[in-house]
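[Q] Does anyone have a clean structure-token version of this?
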Amino acid sequence: MFGQMISLALALLGAAAVYGTDVFFCVVGRTALTHVSDAALVETMGRLHEVADRRMPIFGVIGIVGALASIAFSRVSWLWALSAVAAQVLWIVVYQRVAAPVNAELTRQARAHSVPTDARALQARWDSVIVARVLLMGFSVVAVSVKIIRSAQ
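[A] Here you go.
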């Protein structure tokens, strides 16, 4: 029981950290960036991605490993935990295919103190998947929460 609760807590915290970050950029960041210059957009987002792309993956790992471990500790509501993992894996696919290349380019440009002519198009590409990312990670948080509730019954 203790192992399951720890694994579920880690699963929830890992997914929630990523979810909260994505919600912030979906609700606040997108709009705020429309009011800054291209140079400010590239410098700000390039530097944010420079740090975040190194530090944020651990939260995804914690979320996925925690959810998988919870299945090993208890088969109760295992489908919810597996659904949480599936949503996180889909999030990774979306991130890797769309957001990661944009992150890398904005980081490269920020390091070079350069502003590409397609800076707004790059950000628009990143923005095009943020709602999907929020929904996937939000589902994962809910799925882990349901597993926690059902496991406690």
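[Q] Thanks! Anything notable?
[A] Residues 2-152 form one domain.
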